[in-house]
Design goal:
UDP-galactose 4-epimerase, domain 1, about 325 residues, 9 helices, Rossmann fold, binds uridine-5'-diphosphate, alpha/beta, seven-stranded parallel beta sheet
Length: about 325
C-alpha cells in the first residue's frame, strides 16, 4: 500500500491497537473507531500526540461515514468467550449490522477491505488440522453461537459484497493469539494463567486440560494480516501458529517461565469448548510467503513485562 487513509474498527482492542501501530509505522494515516465495550483506550494512549492518528468513540452497528478512506480493517467485536457470552446480543449485532455498515463504506469509496474472521468458524472441528475448505462443526444455538454465527454471517456478507458489488475483500481466519494488551481479565487461557501465576494463585484448567490450542504471538499475526491485505487473495486464509499445545502443557510452560509454584486446579469444561484446534497454514505460506517466527516460550517472555505491570496495577489499586 502506498500512503493511505485507513479505517480500523475495534481500534482500542488487543489486535486493533497493534494493527493501528503497524499501519502508522508503514506511513499511513489511521482513523480508529471503537465503542469501548471491550476495548481499552490505554491501548492507544501512546498515540495521543500522533498527528496521523484520529480516534472516535462510536458504535459501528449504526451506519456511519468516516469520509473517503482507502482501506477498511474490520476488527470490531468482543472476542474472548467470557466477553462475547456476557455481550451476546451486542456480539450478534456488531458481526451483522456492523459488518454490513463497514462493507458499505468500502463499496462507497472503492476501498480495500479486510475482515477479521476466526477459527471459531470451524466450531468443534471434525477435521484436523483445520483447512480453509472445511465448513465447520458449529452449534447454531449454543452459548458460543453468538460469536461463531455472527462471524460466519460476516464471512457470507463479505463474500456477497465481493460477488455482487466487486468490493476488493479479504478474509483472515485468526487462531488463538496472545501478547501485550490482552485484557488481563478477559478470561482467556493465556491471560488467566499469566495473571494467576504472577499473583501466586492456583492456575485454573477447565476440563482435563487435554484439549488443544495453537498460540500465535501478536506480531506474527499482524505481519500475516498486512500481507493478506496487500494480496490478490479473496478466499479465507488461516493465520495462526500451528504449534499445538494441550492446555495442561501450556499451564506448565507458564509456571516454568514465571517460576511459579502455584498448584493447578481443575474446573468444569464450558459447553461446546472445542476439543482441539490447529491451523493448516499451507495457503498462507504459499500465497503470502508467511510463517510465524515466535515460539510460545519466547512470546510468553515478550508478554511477561506487560502482565507483571497489570498485576502491579491491581495491587496498587487494592
Ligand atoms: N481455559 C482453561 N483455563 C482458563 C481459561 C481457559 O483451561 O482459565 C481453556 C478453555 O476451556 C479452552 C482453552 O483454555 O479449552 C482456550 O480458552 P480461551 O478462552 O483462551 O479461548 P478459546 O480458544 O476457547 O476461544
Amino acid at each position: 500500500m502506498a500512503e493511505r487513509l485507513v479505517l480500523v474498527t475495534g481500534a482500542a482492542g488487543f489486535l486493533g491497537s497493534h494493527l493501528c501501530d503497524a499501519l502508522l509505522a508503514g506511513g499511513h494515516q489511521v482513523v480508529g473507531v471503537d465503542n469501548l465495550s471491550t476495548g481499552n483506550l490505554e491501548n492507544l494512549s501512546h498515540l495521543k500526540d500522533e498527528p496521523r492518528f484520529f480516534f472516535e468513540q462510536m458504535d459501528i452497528t449504526r451506519a456511519f461515514d468516516p469520509g473517503e478512506v482507502d482501506y477498511v480493517f474490520n476488527f470490531a467485536s468482543p472476542a474472548s468467550p467470557v466477553d462475547y457470552m456476557r455481550l451476546g446480543i451486542e456480539t450478534l449485532l456488531v458481526g451483522s449490522a456492523g459488518t454490513i455498515n463497514t462493507l458499505e463504506i468500502a463499496k462507497k469509496y472503492r476501498a480495500g477491505y479486510l475482515h477479521a474472521s476466526t477459527s471459531e468458524c470451524y466450531g468443534d472441528p471434525l477435521v484436523h488440522p483445520q483447512v480453509e475448505s472445511y465448513w465447520g462443526n458449529v452449534n447454531p444455538i449454543g452459548p458460543r453461537s453468538v460469536y461463531d454465527e455472527a462471524k460466519r454471517f460476516s464471512e457470507a456478507a463479505v463474500a456477497a459484497y465481493r460477488r455482487y458489488h466487486g468490493v476488493n475483500t479479504h478474509l483472515v481466519r485468526i487462531f488463538n493469539t496472545y501478547g501485550p494488551r490482552l485484557q488481563p481479565h478477559d478470561g482467556r487461557v493465556i491471560s488467566n494463567l499469566m495473571m494467576q501465576a504472577l499473583r501466586g494463585e492456583p492456575l485454573t484448567i477447565y476440563g482435563d486440560g487435554l484439549q488443544t490450542r495453537s498460540f500465535c504471538y501478536c506480531s506474527d499475526l499482524i505481519d500475516g494480516i498486512l500481507r493478506l491485505s496487500k494480496s490478490d487473495e479473496h478466499d479465507p486464509v488461516n493465520i495462526g501458529n500451528p504449534d499445538e499445545w494441550t492446555i495442561l502443557e501450556c499451564a506448565k510452560e507458564v509456571q516454568s517461565l514465571v517460576g511459579s509454584r502455584s498448584e493447578i486446579v481443575f474446573e468444569p469444561l464450558p459447553q461446546d469448548d472445542p476439543t482441539r484446534r490447529r491451523p493448516d497454514i499451507t495457503r498462507a505460506q504459499k500465497l503470502l510467503g508467511w510463517s510465524p517466527k515466535v515460539a510460545l516460550r519466547e512470546g510468553l517472555e515478550l508478554s511477561l513485562e506487560y502482565f507483571t505491570a497489570c498485576v502491579e496495577r491491581e495491587k496498587a489499586r487494592a
